[in-house]
Amino acid sequence: AVAYGIMTHVSPTPPITGSEDAVKLYTEDLEKLTGGKIIVEDDAVKAAEIIEKVIIEKRKALGI
C-alpha cells in the first residue's frame, strides 16, 4: 500500500525499530518517494489522531 502512496498504520510494532535507518525510511523518506508512509503506533486512539491529522492536512492541500 505504501508503494502506491497510501498511508498505512501498523500495529503491533514491526521488527524494524532496531535500525534507525529503517525507521526513518518507512516513517519519513518513503513519503517523499511515493506519497505514502507507515504510521507505527500501538495505541489505537493515538493512531486515529495521527491519521485524522494527516487527512485534514491533505484536504487543506487540496482546498477541500
From TrEMBL:
Bilayer-crossing regions: none
GO molecular function: iron-sulfur cluster binding; metal ion binding; oxidoreductase activity
High-level lineage: Archaea, Methanobacteriati, Methanobacteriota, Archaeoglobi, Archaeoglobales
Protein name: Carbon monoxide dehydrogenase
Matches recorded under Pfam families: Prismane (PF03063)
Keywords: Iron, Iron-sulfur, Metal-binding
SUPFAM superfamilies for the chain: Prismane protein-like (SSF56821)
Superkingdom of this protein's organism: Archaea
Organism encoding this protein: Geoglobus ahangari
Presence of the UniProt keyword Signal in the record: no
